[in-house]
Design goal:
The chain is of the alpha+beta class and 120 residues long. Helices cover 35% and strands 18% of the residues. The strands form 2 sheets. It has a 3-stranded antiparallel β-sheet.
Length: 120
């Protein structure tokens, strides 16, 4: 299995879920389908896909790093108890209203910590 095939496997796993996965989640799924794939190969390909803007990396302070199939800037809500993560629909004009006038927002990362329905 060449690197292109391995990258395709990693991307297929990310695209096949509607949630957010950690690198370890992705590795476990890849290894169950392709036992010869290594953890370092999965991590390297996650880095390449992130660098190329194909996927997004979501860094939650004190939590695992998650990978998102949607590379466009958007916000997330994360449960601090169980780690559940969901996209938070926010209009870009809502973000723009938070910064000083005449500021061009090039990118942003907004993470809201809130207990999910299961943990409440």
């Amino acid at each position: 299995m060449g690197e292109t095939k391995q990258r395709s496997v990693v991307l297929d796993i990310i695209n096949s879920t509607h949630g957010h996965l950690t690198a370890e989640d992705i590795y476990q799924r890849a290894a169950s389908a392709y036992p010869a794939i290594s953890r370092s190969t999965v991590y390297r390909n996650l880095g390449i896909l992130t660098d190329r803007g194909v996927i997004a990396q979501v860094n939650a302070p004190g939590k695992a790093t998650y990978f998102d199939r949607n590379p466009e800037p958007h916000s997330h809500i994360i449960c601090p108890r169980c780690g559940a993560i969901e996209d938070l629909p926010l209009e870009s004009n809502a973000i723009s209203s938070l910064v000083p006038p005449d500021t061009d927002v090039l990118s942003y990362s907004l993470i809201i910590n809130s207990l999910c329905a299961d943990c409440r």
